[in-house]
Design goal:
The structure is a homodimer.
Chain A (H helix, E strand, L loop, with lengths): L2 H31 L6 H19 L2 H11 L6 H19 L2 H24 L3 H21 L6 H5 L8 H23 L15 H15 L6 E5 L5 E3 L5 E5 L7 H19 L15 H15 L3 H14 L1 H4 L4 H7 L17 H16 L5 H16 L25 H20 L3 H6 L4 H10 L9 H9 L6 H16 L1
Parallel strand pairs in A: 1-3
Antiparallel strand pairs in A: 2-3
Chain lengths: 499, 499
């Protein structure tokens, strides 16, 4: 076969695998949105079968030989070359984990998840210790099987963001931590802002309609996606022309749905903007979880919690909730939605203290993976770090180390991408401001198309061509630097807490 | 391997295949209900890939050997034996059609479907002639490949109802046709009933809520299923614990949604009642399309259009639509929903004239398959038969032979199951009445549980153990006989049109 034929054959195989993986995603989406309760048992089997099929296609020897041949073929375009190269890397990564190892991991995750649910219910951290330690041991093994330079934790972080490592994260956290602590300290000495009006009765229907209007506003394409309700908001996609997001509505809070909409909307804009011609191929996929998170955070925080954004949007919002917000002005609203307050729960944290929640998890995971810490020490060390960074006394494990689902799912190395995502977002937004000096004015006029187009051109359309670091460099001219977030946060919170 | 091991291995394989087929069904359901418009392209690929995978699993040589070995093993229970036997029949049937033939059929269906859409749009029957003839030729070939006794059309009808043949259908139609013509003639000489009040503004929300109440009433389990909106109502399922039905709502008609709900609800009760322990195996599947249709029709017509049913339900219905129905009494309502009037369109036909629509299609299909008729003669022969049986002059092909999607999908041999379904329904309902002489009184009191339980015990729980004919015999003591429908219809329409 010549290069074109090889590439064709490769593309066909990859697209079929994508078909199966996306089919599994449809089943998962349905499971979280519309599936009747009794459908759950068989649905589990159906998803598992599709994943097994996809995995068996992905690890077929035939695919391996094809990829090797393709990678040594001449005459491919640079995009084709990059696809071939990334697919070979993926293949080799998949082959490093023997089916027995994958099965053992999956069985232990199953057990750990159920132990975690039980532990949470009983508010009894010890129930989760043993299965957690078992997963940690398996994760260490996984790191060894995958290989790494430096810290074994690098192998695990690379699963979510190829190339992310402890050097990068340590550096940004070392810069971030003192700056944020100082800022937090400053805030805690000022008068707290009033956000009580965010917690009144906000009619569900109106919230739902307002959420759709917001999504439309930021450029979500409803002909290539939709929003539904689920218990936990998420984004999924079955092609770049079918991107599904979900939200939840709390009738007694305005914030819950609104920022879930913008956050998932940001993820969705990324997926909708991935290049359609690379369906099933690496260049049609997102760069990394860090970059994915940067796309949700830039809309949720840098734009969605800015004064400019609400200068345009607050009057519209008031037409949805005249009774609740009639007496509130834009400045009061802006302050309320940016209230900073240390707390126990990561998912409820504000934009600033959020990073401490991540640092704590990052530090613990690193120590668990290099063996300095074991599962039985996690609870007390967790509580110690919460006191140290956030000054709060964790009352129990439910408000402590049992709060997140991640470990019970075997997701070690994931948390850091929430912070790097937020830092990338600040850096990207600074670059946009730099290129378009009137961007705040545009936003204040309800015009976010310049931002949308910039992200499409510099992030979305690049797919997986670059690593996060390379993409950041190509888009902003620099590698990741925490100072953009620090500057952004300092300015914002000084504005809010000085007046 | 011993018999138990063989059976286990067979069961595992079949369940995995079912997982893939049901996954495809989820994707199809989503496509018809929630999928955004741009998702369509890739969704087509995803469904095709899943179907290809299922087909390749179903025709693997390894499965064939396993089935042969299993069928000669001793020590299986009668249910296990029957599963093994039916799966082997299915396997052998699948192997009779070479992949090239299947592909050619699928490509020609694709072309025929698009020609049909174009022909309908242009109201120009000739556009559809050539692709239709091509499909007919392929269908003849399929009949030869599958093999048959008697008429080649038997091979095609057997695809929808194994064992259904021209002897059976000719016999029932020969008995049915003169009786129905006589009845129609009688009706046409009487004063027509007034159904104008069914066509007013019926609020969509209220219709939706009323539909759900109706479904609940007849025993639809909302923990094992749900209803949604789609352009064409349908029933699908992903296990017997996840059965989805859809409906459509016309704000200017009460009938559309109501009987679509009960009709699809009847299909759904069947699926929900199939034995869960045989997931993926023949005994967990429905008997035939005729029997499936009998389950929808018995609820839609024999029960749902009976005076007893509305004696209980009409007062409730009035609470939903007091303005529209406040001045109507149960007897007027009963007559209106049973109005008989010859028409051009099968899907809009009443319970009586519906059979003529089917007879016409059946007669034409038989002649097309044995070569007596060719595609170019269909339009004029169609119109001739409509004049003969229903006394109506078909104005154009859109109201004539272009109205149904079936032929463009390659579905030849399907139509007869609509009539046999209706005949089975009447026969089953007669049997229920025979066993429970107070059934009408029960229904009039809003109690349909006896009917529900009877159908569960005699039809649903039997899965595919019997053929339609055998199942009918086992449930009613007799093979299919059109007289039950004739008696039922004669009594009903004499009641309605005599007063």
């Amino acid at each position: 076969m010549n290069a074109a034929e090889l590439y064709n054959s490769y593309q066909t195989k990859m697209q079929k695998i994508a078909d199966v993986k996306y089919a599994a995603a449809v089943l998962e989406w349905d499971q979280e949105t519309y599936m009747p309760v009794n459908g759950s048992d068989k649905r589990g089997c159906q998803i598992a079968t599709l994943n097994e099929i996809a995995h068996s296609f992905l690890t077929e020897e035939q695919l391996g030989s094809l990829l090797l041949e393709l990678n040594s073929a001449t005459g491919l375009s640079s995009a084709e070359k990059r696809n071939a190269e990334l697919s070979l890397q993926d293949y080799q990564r998949n082959k490093k984990l023997a089916p027995e190892f994958v099965r053992s991991m999956s069985e232990n995750i199953h057990m750990a998840y159920h132990a975690w649910v039980k532990a949470r219910k009983a508010n009894e951290g010890s129930i989760f210790q043993q299965p957690l330690q078992k997963l940690i041991d398996l994760k260490k093994q996984q790191a060894d099987l995958l290989g790494y330079e430096g810290h074994p934790y690098n192998a695990l972080m690379s699963e979510y963001d190829k190339g992310l490592n402890t050097n990068i994260v340590d550096t940004v956290f070392t810069n971030l931590q003192p700056a944020l602590s100082k800022l937090l300290n400053f805030i805690q000495q000022r008068q707290q802002v009033n956000d009580s009006f965010l917690y009144q009765l906000y009619n569900k229907d109106s919230q739902w309609k307002y959420g759709l209007a917001l999504l439309k506003n930021i450029g979500f394409d409803f002909e290539s996606g939709r929003q539904d309700i689920s218990i936990h908001p998420f984004t999924t996609n079955f092609s770049n022309a079918d991107v599904r997001i979900t939200t939840r509505i709390d009738e007694n809070s305005f914030s819950n749905m609104t920022w879930s909409c913008i956050h998932e909307g940001g993820h969705a804009l990324y997926e909708q903007g991935l290049p359609a011609e690379y369906y099933g191929l690496p260049l049609g996929e997102y760069c990394s979880l860090s970059i994915h998170e940067s796309q949700s955070r830039i809309w949720e925080n840098n734009i969605g919690r800015s004064l400019s954004f609400w200068e345009h949007n607050f009057p519209l919002l008031k037409t949805f909730f005249p009774e609740q917000l009639g007496n509130i002005n834009t400045s009061q609203f802006f302050k309320a939605i940016n209230k900073v307050q240390p707390s126990f729960i990561r998912t409820e944290a504000d934009e600033l203290t959020y990073h401490f929640h991540v640092m704590i998890r990052y530090e613990i995971e690193k120590l668990l993976i290099d063996g300095t810490l074991t599962a039985k020490d996690v609870s007390s060390y967790w509580n110690e770090l919460y006191k140290k960074y956030l000054g709060v006394i964790v009352p129990d494990d439910r408000h402590g180390y049992l709060q997140d689902i991640h470990w019970s799912h075997g997701s070690f190395g994931y948390f850091a991408t929430y912070s790097t995502g937020s830092l990338y977002a600040a850096q990207l937004y600074a670059a946009i401001n730099n290129e378009h000096i009137d961007i705040e004015r545009q936003v204040a006029q309800g015009n976010t198309i310049t931002i949308f187009n910039w992200l499409r051109a510099n992030i979305h359309s690049k797919g997986r061509f670059y690593t996060s670091e390379e993409l950041c460099k190509s888009a902003t001219g620099e590698y990741l630097d925490a100072k953009y977030f620090t500057n952004y946060a300092t300015k914002k919170y000084q504005d809010i807490y000085s007046s």
